[in-house]
Write a structure and sequence with these properties.
Number of strands: 3
Largest sheet: 3 strands, parallel
Structural class: mainly alpha
Radius of gyration: 15 Å
Strand order of the largest sheet: 1-2-3
Number of helices: 5
Mean pLDDT: 94
Helix content: 40-55%
Length: 107
């Protein structure tokens, strides 16, 4: 399914606030970041999303407003997609993570 990201302009990440959703990983966020796509989410699963790396909403009205902003502004989509890409590349760099793991094991 990874190739489907090539057809997207925006990644919409809604979640219900329930036990199942709270156990989900942030894989979709990482995938969106790797494709430099902006995200909009309510933050149930993707709590790390702030308005610097995506749009985080708290109500139906904010969903509509946020989606309209992303749809209408190609520049905003590009800026948020790039910011998310840099964030995920920095925070989830597998080489850095493995170095930390190795250092922890060697203690």
């Amino acid at each position: 399914y990874g190739h489907l990201y090539n057809y997207l302009d925006i990644v919409v990440l809604p979640s219900h606030d329930d036990v199942f959703s709270r156990c989900k990983s942030n894989l979709k966020l990482l995938e969106a970041g790797s494709h430099k796509l902006p995200v909009i989410t309510n933050g149930v699963v993707y709590k790390e999303v702030n308005n610097k790396i995506g749009i985080r909403v708290n109500s139906d009205r904010e969903w509509v407003k946020g989606m309209n902003r992303l749809i209408e502004s190609k520049r905003m989509r590009a800026e948020l997609g790039e910011a998310l890409h840099e964030y995920t590349k920095t925070k989830y760099d597998i080489k850095k993570i493995n170095t930390i793991r190795k250092q922890t094991i060697e203690l």
